[in-house]
Amino acid sequence: MKNECSIVRDLLPLYAEDMVSADTGEFVKEHLEGCTECKEEYEKMRLSQTPDTVSAQKNGTEGMNGGEESDSRADVMPLVNLQRKLRKQKVKTMMCTGLFLVALFVAAFACLSIPVYFPYEANLFTIKENGDESITITFDERVTEYRCVEDAYSGWEEGTAEGVRYYQIEAWTALWSQWFSKSGAQSVTIQKGVTEEISVYYTSNDGREDVCVYGEPVTSGGVITLPRHVLGYYFVLAVVCVGVLFVVWLFVRHKAKGKAVIETILYYPISYCIAHVIVAGYRPSTYTSGRDFMFILFVSILIYGGVLLARSVYRERKEIKELTGK
Ligand SMILES: [Zn+2]
User: What is the mean pLDDT of residues 10-39?
Assistant: First the structure.
C-alpha cells in the first residue's frame, strides 16, 4: 500500500494538470478516494498550482518560505520542466518546418534560374569600337544575363601571342530573370590597353567550338568549353559515404551513443544526395557546376538542419509520452 502511495505522489503533479492518460487518471482517482493522506496532498497541490504560483516559483521570487511551501515546489518542478520541454518542442517544430520550407524555396529558385544559353549566332550581339580605347558589346533583347571573363584561356597559353588579353563571353536567359528582371539590350565595355591587343571569344555552351568574335584567334586550333562532371563525382562520393556509414551503423547499432553519432553524420550525405536530386538531378552534366554546387550545398545544409531538428523533436515527444502516458 505504501508503494502505491509513492507512485501516486509522483503522478500527482501531472494528474493535477490533467496530463495523464485516461487509465492512469482512473488509477490515481481511485487511490485518492481511498487514501486521505494522498488526497490532502492533492488538494494542497491544486491550491498551489495556479499559473501565477508556477511562474512565481519559476522566477524564484517567492523568497523565504516555510518547509511546507518548498515541499510543494519540489512537486511542481517536474511539471515546470515538462512545460518548458513542450514549449521548446513547439519552437523546434516551427524552426524545422521553416528550414524545410526555405530549402524548398531555394530549390525552386535554383530550378527557375537554370541558365538557358544562347548558341552563337550573328545577330546575338553587336560589337562597336570606341576609337582605340575600348569596345562595347551590346546584346540582343532576348539576353537577360551575360558573363564576360578575362583570361579565360590561361590554362594553355603556350604558343599564343604575347601582349594579348583574352576575354570569354557567354549569354543566357532564365525563367526567373524573364519574369522578374527588366529585359532589354544590355552591354559591356572592355577597355583596351595602350600596348595590348584583345581577343574576345563567345562560348555557346552546347558542345560547339567557341567563336572568336573580336581580335586575333588565340591559336590556330579550335577552343571548346566542356561541361563539367564534377557534380556527378560529388554525388557518387556522397552515395559512397552513405554506404560506408551504413555499414558502420550496422556494427554500432546496439550501442546507443555510437549509433547516435553515426546517425548524426549519416544524415549529411543523405541530405546532400536529396539536395543534388532536387537541384540538379535530372541534368547529367552541367556548364554551370559552380552555381549548381552552391545551390546544392545550401539546400543540403537546410535539409540537414531540418532533419536534426525533426529527430530531436521526435525524441523529446517520445520522452514526454513515456512521462505522461499520453
Ligand atoms: Zn495514498
Answer: 88
